[in-house]
Amino acid sequence: MKARVRGIYATALTQTLLDAGHEVVDASAPIRRRFDAEFERAPPDARIATTEDRQGVGAHGAPEAVGALKTLLSGSGLDALAWTDPTPPGTVLDGTVTETLGGGAVVRLRVGADADGGDTAEGYLPYGSVDDRVETGDPVRVQVRESAAPWTDRRPELDGALRAGGELVALEPGSGTRVDLRNDEAARELSGMLDLLGLEPPEGWRAVWKPPAVDADTEELQAGLDRAIAAAEGLDDAVDAAGGIGTLDGPTLVRDEPLARPDAGVWVWFGRESRFALDDRRREATATMPGHHRVKAGSADASAGVDLAEALCEPEADAGFPFGVVTDAFGPAEGDALRLEHGKPDGRLITLGEATVTAVGADGSVTVEREMTGGGTYDGLEVPREAGDIAETSLKEGRWWYPTTYRGRDGTVRGTYVNVCTPVEVFPGAARYVDLHVDVVKRPDGTVERLDDDELRDAEAIGDVPEALAEKARSVASALENAL
Questions:
Q1: What are phi and psi of 302, to 5 degrees?
Q2: Which domain, by its residues, includes 384?
Q3: Are residues 53 and 192 in the same domain?
Q4: Higher confidence at residue 404 or residue 168?
């Protein structure tokens, strides 16, 4: 397999890929400096890129390559979780408009049964990307332009027109040629080369040449255009035979399965243990501070700080993670607002709300408080929730659980709820983990009960929670039962 890797995990994943006998192509300049290896400039079978929030990676490309990457990447650590992408870029799908917003429409997509058991997904269709006006209830046929990780608050972006191509050039409806480069001089040189070679797209299509084309030779440019033409013609024929793309009307059959899915995709979320394991892989290639990926995942500023620290001095591999230094520099600090980002094993992320930081310790401990509204009962505790109750949550970096104690206005303890989860990470603006379903509660009368073992079993059965991770969750829950 040939893979292209970009983002904050690139060095560690390059080491992982090479160790597994795969090839890394189109390597960045830092990767070329760090490895004693020859990196071919060739089209990849799959592309791996860090997600915008730096919490994980997406891998997209040939189905066989993506399948191998799902296994390889999810093996990064006990708390690495992977989900099949139901809407990889380039996929052509039918759907129904469910909501119209200011700039576009929300579309419920018919993705068919995927490896994770889903058959629908949501996407966002900008009004400018479809010729006709769309209203709630309209059937549409669209192509995925950009996908989105399941734990983000973004929807895949859709288009009412076709586009096809690869790393060097893409084809879209229109005419002429466009060079998609920020460097004007390089763009002019590439345009001149293309004119000289006579590399023109077929009638009705416009060629959009991408940055890697600048370094490609004549044969690569021609081969890239030939591949794009073949892909575009195949898509065009399939879509025409099915009744076109965009808004659907008349006798057009609305399909339950994708009309075309040229690529496959997978999203992989890295937990704290996985990030530290990736530190070890990166350290095989270059100097790496303890917690390199953990800090970089926190914020862009923190990521730049890691680069500066590693450039100035040689990190000690056996040093501990400097939680106090990191929080002093980037937060959170006492008085800050901290989100509780509660991941679910199916890939979703639920924000439990914001809490106020009341204490931060150099040992990785962070205490937060929330004032509760009245109404209902506390889950698992069977106690009424009253206005003015205080929820105190004790978080500790790297711990597989965290307790929340509820107190009344008079300080009376109304119960304690302990979440079992992947190791907690306390980033500058949020504490993040993935809930592992099983929980332990201690009620006001002192009784202790373990909850939701059945939900963990179900998640394990459908593959959302790997067997080893499920066993770890049960072990933690048993220890908490005994301790409480």
A1: -65, -40
A2: 331-483
A3: no
A4: 404
